[in-house]
Amino acid sequence: QVQLVESGGGLVQAGGSLRLSCAASGRTFSSYAMGWFRQAPGKEREFVAVISWSGGSTSYADSVKGRFTISRDNAKNTVYLQMNSLKPEDTAVYYCAARSKAGSRYYREYEYWGQGTQVTVSS
């Protein structure tokens, strides 16, 4: 069983930066692939980024590539999402998720989810 808690969201002006954190419980964190997803009002949940259990492989949605960076610190049971050059269209609730298999871009394939953290980017 894995519990996930996101933090670091907030209000930022366009062009600014935020770093989201996701803290996981348990000693099995290092064996899980971790993903970030987001959901804006009235829209479906969409893939943002994913990182393998080892941290050696990452993948990003085209909309955030070059601006966002996913990383993990297994010793701290934490995954991060560094968000730079933020745009108003990045406004959404951001969720982290864990999967006890290889990473995936599909949210239905993840086993555990955090409660989400709000990111609002003003223009």
Could you describe the 3D structure shown?
With 123 residues, the protein is mainly β. It has strands at residues 4-7, 10-13, 18-24, 33-39, 46-51, 58-60, 68-73, 78-83, 92-99, 112-113, 117-122. It is globular, with a radius of gyration of 13 Å. The chain starts with a strand and ends with a strand. The mean pLDDT is 94. Strands 2, 4, 5, 6, 9, 10 and 11 form a seven-stranded mixed β-sheet that branches. Strands 1-3-8-7 form a four-stranded antiparallel β-sheet, with no helix packed on it. A hairpin with a 4-residue loop joins strand 7 and strand 8 (78-83). It contains no helices and eleven strands.
Notable features of this structure?
123 residues, mainly beta
Q: Biggest β-sheet, characterized?
A: 7 strands, mixed
Succession of helices and strands:
EEEEEEEEEEE
Q: Calculate Rg over CA atoms.
A: 13 Å
Query: Ends: how far apart?
Result: 40 Å
Break the fold down into its secondary structure elements and pairings.
Blueprint: E1 4-7, E2 10-13, E3 18-24, E4 33-39, E5 46-51, E6 58-60, E7 68-73, E8 78-83, E9 92-99, E10 112-113, E11 117-122
Parallel strand pairs: 2-11
Antiparallel strand pairs: 1-3, 3-8, 4-5, 4-9, 5-6, 7-8, 9-10, 9-11
